[in-house]
Design brief:
There is one protein chain. With 144 residues, this protein is mainly α. The chain has one domain. It is 79% helix and 0% strand. It has five helices and no strands. Helix 1 runs antiparallel to helix 2 and helix 3 runs antiparallel to helix 4. It is elongated, with a radius of gyration of 19 Å. It starts with a helix and ends with a helix. InterPro entries: GtrA_CellWall_Glycosyl (IPR051401), GtrA_DPMS_TM (IPR007267). Keywords: Membrane, Transmembrane, Transmembrane helix. One of its GO terms (biological process) is polysaccharide biosynthetic process. It is found in: Membrane.
Length: 144
């Protein structure tokens, strides 16, 4: 495995570890809301997704991506990537529970499997990506 591929594999493994913590919160909220009758499975999944996203931001920023991007930039970027994941979760959960009648936990596992890759890539290439450093041309600097 090349150095770049090994680094990507380590980063994805870290992401999966962080995701487990966020998923514990997500699934906990989902189960409590459904089992207590406070929300239907789709709304409960979305509430769980939001709660898990809060955990995910802090841990991924620090552990997975070791980002130095200022919070003022990273939080709104994270929000956009998470909002798309939120929409995907809604579509998958609604389709599988309401459309196909699958049990909510089965539907959530399938939704999680799809959304985890979207979130990893979105955060890797955009939310927490290293900001490019401006390089001045020789003409602009006067150096040759």
């Amino acid at each position: 495995m090349t150095g770049a591929r090994a680094a990507l594999a380590r980063q994805f493994a870290s992401y999966l570890g962080v995701s487990l913590a966020a998923l514990a919160v997500h699934y906990g909220v989902l189960a409590v809301l459904v089992e207590t009758g406070r929300a239907d499975p789709v709304r409960a999944a979305l509430a769980g997704y939001f709660a898990g996203a809060v955990i995910s931001y802090g841990l991924n920023r620090r552990l997975t991506y070791a980002s130095a991007r200022p919070h003022a930039e990273a939080t709104w970027r994270f929000g956009i990537v998470a909002a798309i994941g939120f929409g995907l979760t809604w579509l998958i959960m609604a389709g599988l529970t309401r459309g196909f009648g699958l049990p909510y936990l089965v539907a959530q596992v399938l939704a999680t499997g799809a959304v985890v890759f979207w979130n990893f890539l979105g955060h890797r290439v955009w939310t927490f990506a290293v900001r490019p450093v401006a390089v001045l041309s020789e003409e602009a600097t006067g150096v040759r």
